[in-house]
Design goal:
Largest interface: A-B, 70 and 71 residues
Structural class of chain A: alpha/beta
Order of helices and strands of chain A: EHEHHEHEEEEHEHEHEHEEHHH
InterPro entries (chains A, B): ICDH/IPMDH (IPR050501), IsoPropMal-DH-like_dom (IPR024084)
Strand content of chain A: 15-25%
Number of helices of chain A: 11
Pfam families (chains A, B): Iso_dh (PF00180)
Oligomer: homodimer
Keywords (chains A, B): Manganese, Metal-binding, NAD, Oxidoreductase
Shape of chain A: globular
Number of strands of chain A: 12
Helix content of chain A: 40-55%
GO molecular function (chains A, B): metal ion binding; oxidoreductase activity
CATH topology of the largest domain in chain A: Isopropylmalate Dehydrogenase
Radius of gyration of chain A: 20 Å
CATH architecture of the largest domain in chain A: 3-Layer(aba) Sandwich
Protein name (chains A, B): Dehydrogenase
Largest sheet of chain A: 10 strands, mixed
Number of domains of chain A: 2
Strand order of the largest sheet of chain A: 2-1-3-12-11-4-5-10-8-9
Bound molecules: 3-isopropylmalic acid
């Protein structure tokens, strides 16, 4: 039996994860759910522990982790999010952050030109190095001479494997996004690895954009993109741009993967949204679509597709939370998707 | 007499700069134009010199620099752009990159909802540190064990002064954009300086967003922003997002400033666009609006406002290059603005 570790987290995390768990249970795939409901801001405030080593080991030995969101205004210390989400990504070596964005319904596009609305792309974000590595420090803190350095790390090993993933999943083309004209060392490394990996895939179209131009082009011509591959920071930003174009933050899903081994981590792109926690307004679609990616990962592709179809049908029928212009609650949307599937 | 150094550069740079120079000349302000037309890719390829020390000194002692664009597919070496544009920014210590974005005409907005189209904000980008500092290096190049590091540098000195500028120009509010939840050292420094500088301006509204959320919110709710202040990289990206929302890359202008001393550098946000160079399709609006910012800098505010009004009138009349849906050439648009002013 496959174990799925569930980490609901903070804010709207538990509410949306609940709906995803219900849908998964309905599918009757015999998944064994192991809910780690102590990974949250309350415990962190009480004990200073973001995640115990036992919890980490349970995640490591699971088939998949379904993650909600972490973050709470009561915890001003930003290291809390790092110590949960980034620790999972880094320690499980989940080097791919796979973030698909496909417009859910025409009415959800923010774009004026109907011909440009139907984006359907994947941001493949390097997930285990870059500016997120935590390499750096601060000198002379609390003086006027304070200086901080954050090291943006790129390795041939890390970049090659994520580029290979991007080419492996491309349907038509891969667009490399970097900023080699201004951030030279990592930029050069990415471009050297790109030359090598892209040459090995002559069947896949290729293009290159600097990150500023990529952000602009996504708004101006989103349907031009298939797979975008980029570093940790640029992927963070561009996947929020694609989410905004595909239906908003409430709908975006992601898979944190290491295609070379077992466990993957699946999470909505939205955060803990403390302002709407407990109001029933949180959109469960991002979490449910993350559960669909989890099913893909566990080899249940047919069920994953059925789940995606159920989400589309539910949204098309107008059963939506307020962020999508609807009047339904988190639970009502979850129930509608469950009924549809 | 005030000297304006003009660096037309490469690609469409000379074409658009020409139009801005014509408009400036028409205004009859007695500016002394010193055109450095050797700063381009051809000379770099011939001599390996991007900019001579003499050219650098002429820029330094000018009242302002009007810059076109640098970059050419014949120059694969990305250090060329660094050695011109970034050298000017860094050596002249132009610590503010002021990038206004105001929708030029309703029909140019890519957004569907009419109520969201009229953005009118300024991205204040730190321009002399961050990931652009060129601090870092590469180990084991051309081996499978290659590693690159780019240092993202933040200093109290650099961050404080750019935050102060943001508050000084705010009409309603300043939004700090960082990624302190993932990139901790610089993020912490920015937040500490922010607490101090914002406390000194109780009259100005404040908010804070992580950069991914900021990119999304700009698309979802652009009119909510007044001044956005952020680091070099995030400013680069977000100002292309605001440009896309305000009328496209052809229209965006910028001022590189050091409010504590003389010279400023004014440039369109677009690059050298080699694909359309020489076709007469390049949009001169970004360069002309940069010239308006140059006039502001030189104390000719009334003329700057007249120039902006002339641009709006020209665009409203439909005299536009193809990127704005028109059929006019670079020169025709320039002439129409000149006639209008
Ligand atoms: C050409 C490049 C180095 C530059 C930058 O990133 O600053 C450009 O994109 C800009 O925004 O002015
Ligand atoms: C919470 C934060 C550290 C995280 C990130 O930047 O990776 C989030 O924004 C995301 O995109 O998953």
């Amino acid at each position: 039996m496959t174990t799925v570790v569930v980490i609901p987290g903070d804010g709207v995390g538990p509410e949306v994860t609940d709906q995803a768990v219900h849908v998964l249970a309905t599918l009757g795939l015999g998944l064994d759910l192991d809910v780690l409901d102590q990974v949250n801001a309350d415990r962190f405030l009480r004990t200073g522990v973001a995640m115990t080593d036992d919890e980490m080991e349970r995640a490591r030995s699971a088939g998949a982790v379904l993650f909600g969101a972490v973050g709470d205004p009561k915890v001003p210390d930003p290291s809390y999010a790092r110590d949960v989400l980034l620790r999972l990504r880094f320690e499980l070596d989940l080097y791919v952050n796979h973030r698909p964005a496909a417009l859910l319904a025409d009415r959800l596009s923010p774009l004026r030109d109907p011909a440009l609305r139907a984006l359907d792309c994947v941001v493949v974000r390097e997930n285990t190095e870059g500016a997120y590595a935590g390499v750096g420090g601060v000198l002379r803190e609390h003086t006027p001479y304070e200086l901080a350095l954050d090291g943006d790390i790129s390795t041939a090993y890390g970049v090659t494997r994520v580029l290979e993933y991007a080419f492996a999943i491309a349907r038509r083309s891969v667009c490399l996004v970097d900023k080699a004209n201004a951030v030279p060392f990592g930029g050069g490394l990415w471009q050297r690895r790109w030359s090598e990996v892209s040459a090995a895939h002559p069947d896949v179209g290729t293009s290159h954009l600097y990150v500023d131009a990529a952000a602009m082009r996504l708004i101006q011509n989103p349907t031009a993109f298939d797979v975008i591959v980029t570093n940790n920071s640029y992927g963070d930003i561009l996947s929020d741009v694609t989410a905004a174009l595909a239906g908003g933050p409430g709908t975006a899903a992601s898979a944190n993967l290491n295609p070379r081994h077992g466990v993957g981590l699946f999470e909505p792109v939205h955060g803990s949204a403390p302002d709407i926690a407990g109001t029933g307004r949180a959109n469960p679609v991002g979490s449910v679509l993350s559960a669909a990616l989890l099913l893909d990962h566990l080899g249940h592709g047919a069920e994953a597709d059925a789940l995606r179809a159920a989400v589309r049908a539910t949204v098309a029928a107008g059963t939506c939370t307020p962020d999508l212009g609807g009047e339904s609650s988190t639970k009502e949307v979850g129930a509608a998707i469950t009924a549809e599937v």
